[in-house]
Amino acid sequence: MSQEQRNMERIERWAHLYNTEVTRMINECYTEDTVVDCPNALLVRGRRAFTALEEAVLAAAPWRWCRIDRTVAEGNVVAVLATLFDPDQGDEFQTRFCSVLTFNEDGLVTNDTAFIDATRWPMPSDVAERLAGLDVEWKVPVEA
Hints:
- The chain has 144 residues and is an alpha+beta fold.
- The chain has one domain: Nuclear Transport Factor 2, Chain: A (Roll).
- 31% of the residues lie in helices and 36% in strands.
- The chain has four helices and seven strands, in the order ααββαββββαβ.
- The protein has a seven-stranded mixed β-sheet.
């Protein structure tokens, strides 16, 4: 199996776990020192901070889920175009995002650059408090 094929299979698992067990997704799919960069929103370093962020999103949108629309793999990088749905925001709510995932030799994500519209991504009002003290760099103002 080629590196690209392996990574494409990992993407299927990544999406399934995002929709069912987000903490498990982070633990099984990302390296301990992973970097998640959401340009114009935030930069997260490490599984611990990423887990806190995703648990905050899950608290704000417990029924949210994503659908993979397209993937493109080259070497150790996979670009994923996906759509996020959140029934709590109405049956018609959806927003698209693109994650560019870089994998290491073990098939774990070392870098996730996610291009999203941060104004449409579900976040609880206490997100800054939830992430206080963790390795998170805010690129937009948040209430402390």
